[in-house]
What we know:
Layout lengths: L3 E8 L3 H6 L6 H11 L3 E10 H4 L6 E7 L2 E5 L13 H4 L6 E8 L4 E8 L2 E9 L3 E7 L11 H13 L18 E9 L2
Antiparallel strand pairs: 1-4, 1-5, 2-9, 3-4, 3-9, 5-6, 6-7, 7-8
Amino acid sequence: MVLNDTLVAFSDGNPIDVLRSYPVLDKPATRALVERLFPGAHAEEIGDELLVDALNPPADVVYVGCFPGLDLVCSWGLTPRRPSDLDRSVLAASGRRHVYLHAAHSDAGWTSYGVWRDGERVRALSVCADPGVMEDEGEPLGFERADTDPDELGCASMQGLFGFACDNHDRLDDVDPELIPVVAYRISARS
């Protein structure tokens, strides 16, 4: 798997538990979520995709998966360099109790992730090859190590937050992003 990804998850509980169950996609809910995330924009449904292929979307495309207890959104337009800069309207878009943000770009040597519980940010970390740690707020999560290499941290955080790895590390309890459906929408300004 590539290390270029952007993923925001809104969850009632642990997203890994929902993803491991290979939940059924609620397609009408995806449109409603897109309309809340991009108010005033035109959202054209352009097809279905699998999560593994949606993690690094084109600039004008958003991939959305809505499932019982979990909503997933892949969109570079929503991903700030620092988790603390995530727009409040994005945090409130789903109404679920927990929000998880993950973004990584290997070409830029950058990884960022954040966790919010009941509207409060409990962890925010953004690491770049140069200048290094750009943001470090809250208690470290269980998967974090002393090493702050962006690529290593990107893989560890993807595994720790969502249950699948980017380095072909297979475990029996891993989530398979090749089996999670999402819907693609092209976002443009209304004419």
